[in-house]
Design goal:
Length: 412
């Protein structure tokens, strides 16, 4: 093949993306509660060992491009859009007005706001540091984020306490730090009750997001299960206002089965918001596009969520790889992630309707029909052929994923 000069590269990417097929229309994409984060689309490819590869872009570009793709909801950290020094000041009001205009122009809604309590140097020792003035500042940040949420029409606020922990042991007394962290959340929920009342709006759903590693070396609330224990600990004044925003990859990173982690959140009634992406077990937070690594696991996750009537947002907390250009972020990364999600979601609907899976599942639940009793051997013998259906169901799920249930075969 001939070299592809810079002037022909965008057209090539677009032509091959078209050739991939399987894309949904913007109207179809907008039917799903899919949200696109400001920070994901404006992520420039930087990391500790990586220089940025993409130009900076602002909220106008991101909102316009999300609208064009058909991503109907937008999410943001406070400091993704408002410089730290303008927070809570007049500068914030001007930016909020510009964001509202941009959202209205493009028919996009803000579904979630989140406070950045990890990046700025003031949070070097976490938002629940010893110095009372740091904690008072953290409370200001979460309260201000609640204000932003109401001003932008959001329903959700998310908190990722990734800097709640330490590099070196000794100074941190964990029970105290958790109490101080609870103080910030209590401030946010109490402030929310007042603001919601004054604006005649419902209170926000406050969602905690766990991650097992990064940016601290040791993290005090590393998993969604730890968050559930924290919510139920008695430290929160409004535990009923606080739920979870699990992230698929964050649960996978510590070696968990994400589907089981989600199931534990579901039975607790706390699965309110969900960050969708993909990656690998026991690796760093690579935030790969949903379904690119574990499509079979994703299909299973979505079967669980569909069958339990999850109606919350699917937030594309995904980082386009640094090999993708600014053009590629909106020509490939986001549309392809949305389309894989929609395909897997619809496929999960097929799984629930599949006659083979349905009959096999019902047969497993019916059991062999032998009288209950204490004879373990007899119970096993009576059920042993039925139990083969476990593997048969797994095979059928792979067939559905690969389209073999619709008659696709390889003639050899
Ligand atoms: C980082 C987290 C981060 C959160 C965001 C929302 O690993 O996934 O992106 O989702 O701060 O609070
Ligand atoms: Mg996340
Ligand atoms: Mg992540």
């Amino acid at each position: 093949m001939k070299p592809v000069p810079p002037s022909g590269q965008k057209a090539l990417v677009e032509r091959l993306m078209q050739a991939c097929g399987g894309g949904y229309s913007p109207e179809t994409r907008r039917k799903y509660f899919i949200s696109g984060p400001q920070w994901a689309a404006s992520y420039r490819g930087q990391a500790l060992f990586h220089a940025p590869t993409r130009e900076a872009i602002g909220f106008e570009d991101v909102i316009r491009e999300y609208a064009r793709i058909g991503i109907g909801f937008w999410t943001t950290h406070d400091t993704d859009v408002i410089p730290t020094e303008h927070l809570g000041k007049d500068g914030q009001q001007e930016i909020v007005a510009a964001i509202r205009k941009s959202l209205a122009n493009h028919g996009v809604r803000c579904s979630m706001v989140t406070a950045e309590t990890f990046y700025h140097e003031v949070f070097a020792a976490s938002p629940a540091a010893e110095a009372p003035e740091i904690r008072a500042y953290a409370a200001f940040r979460v309260n201000n984020t609640v204000d932003l949420g109401h001003e932008l029409g959001a329903q959700y606020a998310v908190y990722w306490p990734g800097s709640l922990g330490y590099y070196v042991q000794g100074a941190i007394e964990e029970t105290q730090t958790l109490r101080w962290y609870a103080d910030a959340l209590n401030s946010a929920t109490e402030h929310d009750i007042e603001v919601a009342r004054s604006k005649n709006r419902p209170v926000l759903k406050h969602c905690l997001e766990a991650k097992p590693f990064e940016p601290q070396a040791e993290i005090l609330l590393p998993t969604s299960d730890a968050m559930l224990a924290f919510i139920a600990s008695g430290l929160l004044t409004h535990p009923e206002m606080v739920g979870l925003n699990p992230e698929y990859l964050h649960e996978l990173m510590w070696g968990s089965a994400p589907r089981a982690a989600l199931a534990r959140a579901l039975v607790a009634g706390k699965l309110w918001h969900f960050d969708i992406n993909d990656g690998y077990r026991l690796k760093h937070d690579v935030d790969i596009g949903v379904g690119l690594v574990n499509p079979l696991d994703w299909l299973n996750v979505l079967v669980l969520l569909r069958s339990h009537g999850y109606h919350g947002p699917f937030n594309l907390d995904y980082k386009p790889p640094r090999t993708t250009s600014n053009h590629g972020v909106f020509a490939v990364s986001f549309p392809s992630a949305v389309d894989r999600f929609i395909t897997l979601w619809e496929m999960a609907g097929e799984v629930s309707e599949d006659p083979v899976i349905r009959e096999a599942t019902e047969a497993l639940k019916a059991g062999a029909g032998v009288p209950p009793g204490a004879d373990a051997k007899a119970i096993f013998e009576a059920n042993k052929d039925l139990l083969t259906l476990h593997e048969l169901i797994a095979h059928r799920l792979v067939q559905i994923l690969l389209g073999l249930h619709r008659g696709r075969v390889y003639l050899v």
